[in-house]
Structures are given as structure tokens and as C-alpha cells.
Amino acid sequence: MRIGIVCPYSWDVPGGVQFHIRDLAEYFIRLGHEVSVLAPADDDTPLPPYVVSAGRAVPVPYNGSVARLNFGFLSAARVRRWLHDGAFDVIHIHEPTSPSLGLLTCWAAQGPIVATFHTSNPRSRAMIAAYAILQAALEKISARIAVSEYARRTLVEHLGGDAVVIPNGVDVDFFAEAEPKTEWQGDTIGFIGRIDEPRKGLPVLMKALPKILAARPQTRLLVAGRGDEKEAVETLPAELRSRVEFLGMVSDEDKARFLRSVDLYVAPNTGGESFGIILVEAMSAGAPVLASDLDAFAQVLDRGEAGELFPNEDADALADAAVRLLADPARRAGLRARGSAHVRRFDWSTVGADILSVYETVTAGAAAVAEDERTTGLWGRLGLARD
Amino acid sequence: MTATLIWILVALVVIGLYLSWTAGRLDRLHARIDAARAALDAQLLRRASVTQELATSGVLDPAASIVLYEAAHAARQAEEEQREVSESELSQALRAVFAESAQVEAVREVPGGEEAARELTEAVRRVPMARRFHNDAVRAARALRRHRKVRWFRLAGHAPFPMAFEMDDEPPSALADRAA
């Protein structure tokens, strides 16, 4: 099958959606399918052979933060060229509502289009204003995938229609077989995420830390992620600061070893999560998980069966739960075992097969993807377009 | 005077283009429904065939075989207006037979059973998928067809008002549980 995948975010910036697309593309290539990924990227970044650059993404303020988006005449032309050269059987657009490549592709293509909705943002004002335009583009999508039941619910509320739920995939064995590192073992709490992004919840964990250290002074907190380390420990009493170790950005291998080593993984995120891939990775590596009770997290953790939940933003509850878990090796072993069994449904072998079933369902009996002549402009519509 | 005429002309052309674009959208939606309906038909047929094959293979006990054969046969022979009911009954029959994972294991153990179990698992998973995609297309077309501009200018032509396909497609728990 010839598969075209559209990535809305810059390939050079690491992120959940980008990793998901990379793993998905590589999974399909291993199965012998032909895959091409269209993604924004700087011209000088080295790209894997299956990625086609759609040009540089432009940083613009959008939806409360600075987003790097692709739009305008040049990007639209590159999308058309990619569609024309690719002659795909199916195209898979990620995040079609963001005003970037996804929407442009939706606008320019016709035929079997599959779309995955990753985020579950509350409806923005821009989306309401652009609803008519968005609807005209989105109604071309033949199959919608939501990454969680929660994301599906928001999708149905905002845009109507329906979607099938297929979770994000993880290479479970990669994490399960990683070698633990001794210096990260022994009464350690792990946290992975951007330090300076409050929604990732490090401030909540920092607030809980004095209470945890009061009960278990030998405990260490290991933090992996980008951001200002001094600012992060500012709220902490000076004598406790030495119990926090910052590892900076870690490679994929180190991330797996990190998760294999820690005694407890804490995900104190305060919102904005629609899936929680890091929890799946932690469970794959056999780390007991303690997470805030966001809808998405509760679902990934099987309503608290595969990992423990604490009330969102409640630092006291987080501290109590962490102390209890660290003191109870039997409970942690139980969580480890249930997590490892639960996480199999997120393995690429299951997730990839499901996504392939979606492709096969929409391509059965349908023509291949083509450019949509109706939107090639006024001349096209009047029948005056030249070849 | 001429200026007014030109403006009226421009307005008419713009309205005409907009209506032709909307008609194009509607046309594409109808094509999408047709493709989705064909895919749904194919998945339903496939599920009924796999079930019938299993029922006649002698892998299952005679009572389960008869129940499945009857339901699969009825689903394949159903008239259009009976289709939703008999497909739902096939779902119920499959749920009744494959309620326990021991039954699935028993099918897997016989020669060729692994293959049959995989096909059935795939079929019961794809039917709800295809149905969701179909009903999603129907909803989008209905939303547009209810719009004033479409009704006033009869942009939908003689195409029948699209109907959703409503059925019970809940897969059997022993086949749907994906935890290995």
C-alpha cells in the first residue's frame, strides 16, 4: 500500500506527535508498505529517507502560545506537489484542525483520507469563527481516529460526527529490555518533562517534596527534561535542593534505562493531556506509576488498576501516596506486574494493525488519493485551468 | 446606472460560484457515503462468511454451530429493511457463543483454527469501524443538506436523504480483549 502521512509540527523539534509518526512510518516500512511523510523542517536538517520537507515552519502566536505553523502559497504548492508525486492509496493526516499542513492537505486532496486527532483542546474562538471553512475541509476525511476515549468525546462535542479510538503506540519491548543504571536506583522518584512548562506539573511535585523528604530523607528526585534548573528549585528550602538531580535532555536509550531504574514514576501533569504516552512508557519499563487523575491518565491507567492516581494539583495527596508507595515494596511489585500486562494493548504490533485495518476499510472500493480540482482556484472552477 | 448593473452582475456571479462550490461539496459527501456503505457491506459480508465457515467446520459443538449458522445465514439473506435487525442478531449470537475465552482457545487448538480465530477477531473489529465511518459521513451530509441554501436551491437534486446504519455491533468480549 502507498501511504502518505502528514505531520503538522516541525520535524526538527522533538514532540509526541512527531515521535508517533516516526514510529508509525517505520512500522509500516518494516511491513513492506511504501511510506512518505510530509513534515515542516528546516532545509539543512538531516531527514530520514521517507520524510519530505514542506519548508520551514513559521513561529506565530496562536491559541495562547507560539506555534510553529506552515501556511501560505509556498506551503500549499509543496503539498500539491507531494500529493501529485506520491500517488498515494491513502493519506493519513495528523491534527487536521491545526492551521498548518494538515488543514492544507485536507483542502487540496480528495480520496481516502484518514485523520488522527491527538489533542483535546477546549474549543478555541478561532475554531468557532472558522467553523464553516473547517467543516468544508474536515468533511473530506473518510475515517477519524481519536487517541483516547477522552479525545473522542471532545471531538464529538466540537465537530460532531464520530471517531474510532486507537491509542498511541509504544515499542513495549524496547523499554522492557532496557538495562537499569545503578546510580539511578535506590529510593528514587522519576519525573520526565519540560521543567519550565507548568502544565507538566513539576511545581506540584516540588511542593510535595518537603513532605516526602521529611518521611523518607534518603529519597532522591531525578528530573529529566529541558528548562531552567535554578528556577525549578527556587521554591524548595536550600537544604533540600541537593536531593534533586537534573539530568537535562536524555536520549531514547537513557529514557528507557531511567524508567527501568526508578522506584516510582510520578506524572503530576495539571492538564492539557489527551493521552499520556509517558505513562505507557513507564509501565512498559516496569516502573510503578503515580499520576494526577486527569481523564486521559485515568484511562491509560485502567481507572487506577495499573497505576495509582491522586487528585489533580493536590500536593499533599501526592506526597502521602508517594511515601506510602515507597514504603510498600509489595504494592509496587503488584503495580509493576499489572502495568506490564496492561501495556501490551499499546504495543505497536496491536496499534499498527488497527491503523492498517482503518486504511483497508476506507480504501476498499475507493479510488486512490488525487488532487482536488475543485479547489485549484477560480480558473479551475470555471473550467479554464491549463495543464 | 451601469455601475449598479455591474455590481448586481458581480453579486450574481459570486452567488453562483458559491452555490456551485456547495453543490461540489455535497456531491463529494454523497460519493463518500457510497464508498463507506460499500466498505460496510463488505465487512458485514465478511463477518457473516467467516462465521458460517466456522459453524460448518465442526470445530464448535453442534448447538453452537446451529446457532451461528442460522444467524449468519439470516444476516446474508436479509432484505434491505431487515438488515440492521439480522446483523444485530448475528452480533448477539457471536457474543453468546464466544462469551468465554475458553471457547476461543478451543477453536485455536484445532488445525487451521488459529487462522479462523484471527479472521473472526478481525471481522468483529472492523464492522464497528466501518459502521462508524459510514455514519460519520451520513451525519456530515445531513448537516449540509439541512442548510437553507441547499434546500432553497435544491442542490441535492434527487439523491435520497442519507440514512445512518444502526445496529448492535458490540464484539464478543473474548475476542475484543486485546490484552495478551
Automatic annotation (TrEMBL), chain A:
<protein>
    <submittedName>
        <fullName>Glycosyltransferase family 4 protein</fullName>
    </submittedName>
</protein>
<dbReference type="Pfam" id="PF13692">
    <property type="entry name" value="Glyco_trans_1_4"/>
</dbReference>
<feature type="domain" description="Glycosyltransferase subfamily 4-like N-terminal">
    <location>
        <begin position="14"/>
        <end position="173"/>
    </location>
</feature>
<dbReference type="GO" id="GO:1901137">
    <property type="term" value="P:carbohydrate derivative biosynthetic process"/>
</dbReference>
<keyword id="KW-0808">Transferase</keyword>
<dbReference type="GO" id="GO:0016758">
    <property type="term" value="F:hexosyltransferase activity"/>
</dbReference>
<dbReference type="InterPro" id="IPR050194">
    <property type="entry name" value="Glycosyltransferase_grp1"/>
</dbReference>
<dbReference type="InterPro" id="IPR028098">
    <property type="entry name" value="Glyco_trans_4-like_N"/>
</dbReference>
<keyword id="KW-0328">Glycosyltransferase</keyword>
<dbReference type="Pfam" id="PF13439">
    <property type="entry name" value="Glyco_transf_4"/>
</dbReference>
From TrEMBL, chain B:
<feature type="transmembrane region" description="Helical">
    <location>
        <begin position="6"/>
        <end position="24"/>
    </location>
</feature>
<keyword id="KW-0812">Transmembrane</keyword>
<keyword id="KW-1133">Transmembrane helix</keyword>
<keyword id="KW-0472">Membrane</keyword>
<dbReference type="InterPro" id="IPR023353">
    <property type="entry name" value="LemA-like_dom_sf"/>
</dbReference>
<protein>
    <recommendedName>
        <fullName>LemA family protein</fullName>
    </recommendedName>
</protein>
